[in-house]
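Posted in: Structural Biology > Protein-Ligand Complexes

Title: Requesting predicted complex, guanosine-5'-diphosphate-rhamnose in pocket

I'd be grateful if someone could produce the 3D structure tokens for the following input. Sequence and ligand are given below.
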Amino acid sequence: MTTAKVALITGITGQDGAYLAELLLAKGYVVHGIKRRSSLFNTDRIDHLYQDPHVDDQRLVLHYGDLTDSTNLIRIIQQVQPDEIYNLAAMSHVAVSFETPEYTANADGIGTLRILEAIRILGLEKKTRFYQASTSELYGLVQETPQKESTPFYPRSPYAVAKMYAYWITVNYREAYGMYACNGILFNHESPLRGETFVTRKITRAMARIALGLQDCLYLGNLSALRDWGHAKDYVEMQWRMLQQTQPEDFVIATGVQYSVRQFVERAARELGVTLEFRGEGGNEVAVVVRVDGDQAQCKPGDVIVKVDPRYFRPTEVETLLGDPSKAKAKLGWTPTTSFEELVREMVQSDYTAAKRDHLIKTAGFRIYDYNE
Ligand code: NDP
Ligand code: GDR
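-- Reply #1 --
Done. Output follows.
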């Protein structure tokens, strides 16, 4: 009888953590995850995977923890003795990292060191394989297009600088201690589980709510930013594959196709039968409805449904990112399965379903209870 492999996922409550946990459970792994204590439940994305700790053969186990607490990390890793660690936890919002730079460095940079050191302190260098969630943000002010593994880094935010430390400390521990440690340099990946304040989800959620009359206008920052957007489900499969090779290596994962934020907005609106035209420029740019097909959207021609709000501009911006995933194609068998149009459609449909529920509650189901009745 072969015993199941054991994986530990930091950031299991996030977008990628949820998809990765699902993937590993389907592959027969026992999955341990680290979640943070919060005053409200923060396990929505993995509630469908939850297993009662009282059942025999529990295959999903959650531990309280934090990347800023090394004793906690050492204790969890000692207890779990993982074959694979996926370090997905991070303060992952680029704009927020300008507001909380020190915390971001602590969690995203030093947090990675804490895990690597825990592996070493516990003598697990030869047993435990380590995946670091590196990012296309490392390329920042791009030095070469498209970006590949050898493209020089030029980080443009406290988030990216912290992730650059994490990238290099992972490489260093691989070289210094012979650990199986690798970086996945992943370009933007999205899904219906994406956090609501990242631009794609902010757009699909707002378009759905505007279509149903729950919101009037969406405020965005830099509409000209160009990104290489893929589907998170495809990308977590590559995280797993990176840990199944004979030699640890770093890989770029991207689609190789680029769109602007403006194009994402247009595409999302079109999914709801709304054709938009962008007018003006810079901080005054707006999107105006020019045609409405079908009956999904309540807005009408002439409505201004997107405005630029300079408060969403970043002190230093990453204007353009486009990945070259040739190495992953050759060595990991990487082929993205979801097109840009399919990604936008899936996100819009999911948010439209959620907005319809809100709409129903507002119009039919909601009543403030009157104690005098
Ligand atoms: P999310 O923001 O959705 O998830 C981040 C996870 O990290 C959450 O589970 C969060 O917990 C947890 N977390 C945050 N801070 C801490 C901390 N101090 N200690 C422990 N856990 C913490 O990110 P994604 O799933 O989108 O991304 C996963 C990883 O990949 C991140 O490291 C991100 O930087 C990186 N990345 C993401 C890309 C993308 O396009 N999605 C592209 C390239 C890299 P909680 O739920 O409580 O907030
Ligand atoms: P990014 O993702 O910064 O690339 O980091 P985000 O979706 O936040 O921004 C993408 C681009 O859109 C522009 N933008 C806006 N962004 C947000 N969030 N809100 C807005 O209103 C808005 N308007 C325009 C941004 O300026 C930017 O150019 C994501 C994160 O998941 C990181 O953790 C990850 O490392 C990288 O992707 C790859």
